[in-house]
Amino acid sequence: MDILSPQSQAGTRLAHVGRQPIFDSTGDVVAYELLFRGSTNAVTATRRDAYATSEVIVNTFTEFGIEEVVGDRLCFINLTRDFLVGDLALPFGPDNVVLEVLETVDVCDDVIAGVAALVEQGYSIALDDFVWGSGHERLLSFASYVKLDLLDLDRSHLDEVVAACRAYPGIQIVAEGLETGEHLALCNSYGFELRQGYVLSRPQVLTASSIAPSKLRRLELLSALCAAEPDLDRIISAVVGDPALTIRVLRASNSVAAGSTSRVSSVRQAVVLLGVTQIRRWAVLMVVEDITEAAESQLIEALTRARLCQILAPKFGAHPDAGFMAGLITAVAELLGVSAASMAHRLPLTADIEGALERGAGPLGQMLRVVGAYQRGDVGQAAAAYEADNLTRAVMEAMRWASQAVHSSHGPYCASS
């Protein structure tokens, strides 16, 4: 997604994530630590709890896209106890991710078992703000990185702490809190592999506009996902009933965390591609994040366009599923104040949908021009390409369907979506 200015459109929210580089001894950026930020101008994190971690994960992977935030570098993500012991599941795989055990976590037997399980799954572990005697030394055998805060660390014990870390050959030391030339000289004298701090680079806050999903729809999706035998149709119903959920499922399916480069042309394909387990994990984090509910009128407008395109698509020789997807993406793009082409570039769409959104190509492109003309009030242009009476009936049907979708207690289900 494009990184936008702090101004959001009505019915949308601003998504933020902080990003601070981690450098190697030669000055190259090798990783980014991802940080919770509550606003574009925030200098520090106002909270470091499960909410903060959930928001960082959801925003990074489903609003910006992990490749937009860190590229091919490592990303360090702070984890609270809830994630370490498995109360909240991680919705991404271990590739290019380092899990930071916050210094505030009480290292008990459950935490040790949870960290051991994460390492067994292939995740790399970092011990944040490491202090000998805090109990975190019990995790050294699992760690790939130890972060030492040179700004606050008692330097009289630095030799002992470094020696304890060096007893584990697989550990790299990350010196953080670097604010002076003296700190950098200390890094060099001890041979610390990685460095982070204001003297090298301050955190940058990335901000993007995103449509706010419906709280009710998220809870419905979570309920469907947690059933003893999840009903695929009910899951798809909850997803297609909320444009924000649809876009997030698409982005998640395109994320490196999903481990797939498959292209999709329908919500059903995206749901099947991700699988119930992965979607359940994202839904849990979305509930934890507790995003503000989107404006009802804007949800209806977005779904009306998607449904209208679904109805009209066969008349232009296109598949109705592809029509729904193309219409929905153009509507959401307008809500976000970005171009449909920029959204298409970040989603795993089939060539016909991508071509229609980026260049107005093919039958879907022609369909979108007709729908766009009608919604701009240029009925004459729309009618010239499609029968006026049939178009009016299709619009009325789409409006009824969209209104029912938003107001339904269980969400709509469109068999072809």
Task: Supply the key terms.
13% strand; 417 residues; EAL_sf; HDOD domain-containing protein; Hypothetical protein af1432; EAL_dom; alpha/beta; TIM Barrel; eight-stranded mixed β-barrel; elongated; 2 domains
Quick structural summary:
It contains 18 helices and 9 strands. It is α/β, with parallel strands linked by helices and 417 residues long. Strands 1-2-3-4-5-6-7-8 form an 8-stranded mixed barrel.
Structure overview:
With 417 residues, this protein is an alpha/beta fold. It has two domains: 12-207, TIM Barrel; 214-417, Orthogonal Bundle (Hypothetical protein af1432). It is 48% helix and 13% strand. The protein has helices at 50-64, 66-70, 81-84, 109-120, 158-166, 181-190, 215-225, 232-240, 243-254, 267-274, 276-289, 296-312, 320-336, 340-345, 351-359, 362-375, 379-385, 388-407; strands at 12-24, 29-35, 74-79, 97-101, 124-127, 145-149, 172-176, 194-195, 204-211. An eight-stranded mixed beta barrel has the order 1-2-3-4-5-6-7-8. Helix 1 crosses helix 11, helix 12 packs across helix 18 (388-407) and helix 15 (351-359) packs across helix 16. It is elongated, with a radius of gyration of 24 Å. The protein starts with 11 loop residues before the first strand and ends in a 10-residue tail after the last helix. Residues 1-11, 290-294 and 409-417 have low confidence and may be disordered. It holds the Pfam family HDOD. Residues 1-217 form the EAL domain. InterPro entries: dGMP_Pdiesterase_EAL/HD-GYP, EAL_dom, EAL_sf, HDOD, RNase_Y/CdgJ. This is HDOD domain-containing protein.
